[in-house]
Amino acid sequence: MANDEKKVVPRTLKGLSDYWPEEVIARRRMMRTMETLFEKYGFSPLETPALEYLDTLLGAGGENANKELFRLESPEGDPIALRFDLTVPFARMLAQYPDRLKTPFRRYAIGPSWRTDKPGVGRFRQFIQCDIDVAGAPTVAVDAEIIAVLAETMAAICPLEFCVLVNNRKLIDALLDDCGIHETDRQKHVLRVIDKLDKVGVPNVRLELGPGRIDDSGDPIPGVKLTDDVIEKVLGFIGIEGETRELVTAALESSLPDTVLSREAITEMRELAEALEALEVPQAHAKFAPSLARGLDYYTGPVYEVALIGVPEFGSVGGGGRYDGLVSRFAHQPIPCTGGSIGLDRLFAALRHVGQTPDIPAPVQVLVVTMGNVPKAETLRVAAELRSAGLRTETFFASRKKMQMGNQLSHADHYGIPVAVIIGEDELANGIVSIKDLRAGKEAREGIDEREAYRQAGKTGQKSVSRTEMAATVKRMLLVDPA
Amino acid sequence: MANDEKKVVPRTLKGLSDYWPEEVIARRRMMRTMETLFEKYGFSPLETPALEYLDTLLGAGGENANKELFRLESPEGDPIALRFDLTVPFARMLAQYPDRLKTPFRRYAIGPSWRTDKPGVGRFRQFIQCDIDVAGAPTVAVDAEIIAVLAETMAAICPLEFCVLVNNRKLIDALLDDCGIHETDRQKHVLRVIDKLDKVGVPNVRLELGPGRIDDSGDPIPGVKLTDDVIEKVLGFIGIEGETRELVTAALESSLPDTVLSREAITEMRELAEALEALEVPQAHAKFAPSLARGLDYYTGPVYEVALIGVPEFGSVGGGGRYDGLVSRFAHQPIPCTGGSIGLDRLFAALRHVGQTPDIPAPVQVLVVTMGNVPKAETLRVAAELRSAGLRTETFFASRKKMQMGNQLSHADHYGIPVAVIIGEDELANGIVSIKDLRAGKEAREGIDEREAYRQAGKTGQKSVSRTEMAATVKRMLLVDPA
Question: Fewer beta carbons within 10 Å, N or C terminal of chain A?
């Protein structure tokens, strides 16, 4: 292609992200830790393709998900779309392979999903979800296991404080029943208002549950128009806190009248508390939070959200709950399901935001640097010797003008390669190599003329060893902190 | 959702594949082996999103790739598409981040790509490519490293015999020059015919290089209309074989006249042979094959293909070559590149076809089975004890009618779980559990009445131990071959 042709401007698609080596490796480590923990809790991996028939996805995730689909056409002309989560494909598989996927079944899946929604802080149009779901187990003991996995996973991969907040659709149903709010649209409105508690505070929630209010921009926000005593009942309920899950449950019980609905809800919460205790989930890692309303219109029982403490911009990095209706979109036999998920990209963005991503060393450990007229085959032989000792070794081959030793060492600096093995004609003739710890002089070299720096550095911090000692010497050097 | 509503038929998109736990784990192991080997050779991972702007992809992979794109629109209305390979996004990154990705740079990427072409044996519309590429190194020493990685990787992950076949665009150019075939369309035609050698045999290739022929269906295939002596020259050249890469190179040299073109080509092949020798690539794992023509119209130097021996339906499971023009689609500064790739799905399909996929044990090691009225919290405690000893443990919670012990043990059988830890009220009262090796009786139980079988088995091959001995006993049991 001629050089004066019109060039394509290289750019990453809006809302998506490229990842650098240390990020790929850090994220991979987090995913591996999750795989190990998910399997420890008896979950098995399933994998489904990125694309699904549109009817599989449509309606499954509510109106928002429908709007957020990346839609396209199959080569056969069928409407298809990129999956927007990993739960719907799992429900599809449960219905498609009932003989193979006998329930109860625990599956995990780690992979990308796609949504067209507006990109924002920690919100991407392609994002990796790390999902665990249990199909066919209609007991909150299993919800407790999901919460335990989420908590143990977060403790393992996240250096920040976190908490899994837990609520229950049935509790809110009992509250709404007690308040005499029976109409679905009004119930949803109340849930929407409750969900804003953290963002707008109690006084504004009070107004929105009542007459409504004018927001900061001057726009009117219509209220639910509840009476004052009902508003105070709702606020009292969602404000309940306590030292332990058991204490919160007791407080919830005494705040609700003794009805069939409330008895069922409280029994579930008590069972959940006992189960979390049996699984030794620390009180600080999983709390009962009656104000949690996210997703309550979708979930049918317990609902949970993974919150990062002290990074409000990122808030929730995961969540889940019990969804007993999803599989019945496909199959006549309904299957009770419950599941949770950690959003890797959102969590990773939060860690990056506070400078807490894992410190990943450069993937390459040794650069073979050549001086003068060293045959390429000899460079390769040195590299092969280092590699067969298990050292991650790069050779440096470039255009002639880039082959100066200074440039080769500068390459190692740029990519954070800690050790250089240097061979020149003299070394070759004597069966030796020079080995150089590049971490030591790095700070000293910065800011001064590159070639001069390497000329100085070349005389210090460098040792010559025989080829037979080469790999062992590099390994010892890598073990030592350069200080 | 009411049960009499119209149900969505659960189905996997045509040309795509769902993967079961043992497949996910087997494929993951293969990918991890590749990551380790790629890093050993100094490659670093980069990750790009599945979606790219259409102009990034269009034209980059030739006409076929253009036709095979899954196209859609971004939320902003821009034409976009799913990537069809991992090389074009790498070229895009090289041009987009020249300061960060200073060359020479070695990157690897393992991830899915999508093409709309007709699905077939081992050919999917979503497929995982495992790619290594080196940017900025204009020497065949680096091609030799790519070939060495491909060969070492295949030896590590593939139990079948394989060979990396190697040819060079420059050799074919020298041949075409010698034959007086200078016109691009005729050159391409010759390459297309040579490429069919394996499929149609020498006599048919001879006809297609000459007057043309009538194929099996009666359709005429137009010939290149070369003269007889030119045809024999081409056939002689592409038929060259030899014990070693050095011998093939020598034979190629003597078959070509001494021109600038041929001298350059032979020098490169000799350097390649020396480099492969220095990297200790076995002669059987990388052969010079002058008849290899796949992709020669795209690549500019060495070209390679990974062939499975003895599984002709699957033929090539990887390949690559030197492509010096790709980055100049984006950047005014051209960057010489070379790279290779292994197609994981195609290789995995081939292994499955010959029954050679790795034997992966069930991810779950222990099922906690309960009898009678055991509190759920107690089941969870037993599971927590096993898990904290590192055992991958599933609990069994299902609807009441599925909770019989026979059904629980049958669940373990179905999913290949080797060990059951059984607790009943008696065990609980005495602080013990029963531990059962489920592999031992599995064959005996097959075909006879399930409950009766478990009643019998329940009395044998089962031991009772205290809770403190539980995890250690299970671990010992897992170490013993059930025989």
Answer: C
* Tally of helices (H runs) and strands (E runs) in chain A: 18, 18
Is residue A447 exposed (0-12), middle (13-18) or buried (19+ Cβ within 10 Å)?
exposed
Q: How many CB atoms lie within 10 A of CB B319?
A: 22
> Residue A2 carries which side chain, given as an amino acid letter?
A
What residues in A contact B76, CB-CB < 8 Å?
14
Residue B300 and residue B324: Cα distance in Å, rounded?
Answer: 6
- Tokens 């409504």 sit at which residue? A212
Residue B36: both structure tokens together: 């380790």
CB pairs under 8 A between A and B: 299
Q: In chain A, what residues touch B25 (CB-CB under 8 Å)?
A: 45
pTM of the complete model: 0.93
Output b/e per residue, B48-66; b: 16+ Cβ within 10 A: bbbbbbbbbbbebbeeebb
Question: B355 CA to chain A: closest CA distance, Å?
Answer: 20
DSSP designation for A472: H
**Where, residue-wise, is CATH 3.30.930.10 in chain A?**
21-353
Specify whether the CB–CB gap between B319 and B195 falls below 8 A: no
CA distance B38 to chain A (A): 9
- In angstroms, the CA A170 to CA A282 distance is 24
How far apart are the C-alpha atoms of A371 and A351, rounded to whole Å? 42
Pairwise CB contact (< 8 Å): A46 & B18: yes
Residue that has been written with the tokens 């490293």 in this structure:
B145
- Residues A19, B126: C-beta atoms closer than 8 Å: no
Peptide linkage before A104 cis (omega within 30 of 0)? yes
pLDDT by residue for chain A (483 residues), tens only, comes to 444 567 899 999 999 999 999 999 999 999 999 999 999 999 999 999 999 999 999 876 666 668 899 999 999 999 999 999 999 999 999 999 999 999 999 999 999 999 999 998 889 999 999 999 999 999 999 999 999 999 999 999 999 999 999 999 999 999 999 999 999 999 999 999 998 888 899 999 999 999 999 988 899 999 999 999 999 999 999 999 999 999 999 999 999 999 999 999 999 999 999 999 999 999 999 999 999 988 777 788 999 999 999 888 887 999 999 988 788 888 778 899 999 999 999 999 999 999 998 888 899 999 999 998 899 999 999 999 999 999 999 999 999 989 999 999 999 999 999 999 999 999 999 999 999 999 876 655 555 555 555 555 555 568 999 999 999 999 999 997 654
Q: What are the b/e assignments for B252-274, b being 16+ CB within 10 Å? A: bbebbeeeebbeebbebbbbbbb
Sheet of A79-82, strands arranged across:
A51-53, A79-82, A71-73
CA distance B396 to chain A (A): 7
Domain with CATH 3.40.50.800 in chain A: 366-479
Does any CB of chain A come closer than 8 Å to the CB of residue B364?
yes
Distances (CA, A) of A211 to A7, A181, A204, A215, A234: 59, 16, 11, 13, 15
Q: Which of B7, B52, B80 sits opposite A332 (nearest CB)?
A: B7
Q: How far is B112 from chain A (nearest CA, A)?
A: 9
Please name the member of B46, B53, B142 whose beta carbon is closest to the beta carbon of A13. B53
CA B440 to chain centre: 35
What's the token pair of residue B455?
């009643």
Six token digits for residue A371: 């001086």
Instruction: Domain A366-479: give its CATH code.
Output: 3.40.50.800
Q: Using alpha carbons only, how large is chain A's radius of gyration in Å?
A: 29
Asked if residues B167 and B292 have their Cβ atoms less than 8 Å apart, the reply is yes
Is residue B301 within 8 A of residue B170, CB to CB? The reply is: yes
CA-atom Rg of chain B in angstroms: 29
Residues of B in contact with A393 (CB under 8 A): 40-42
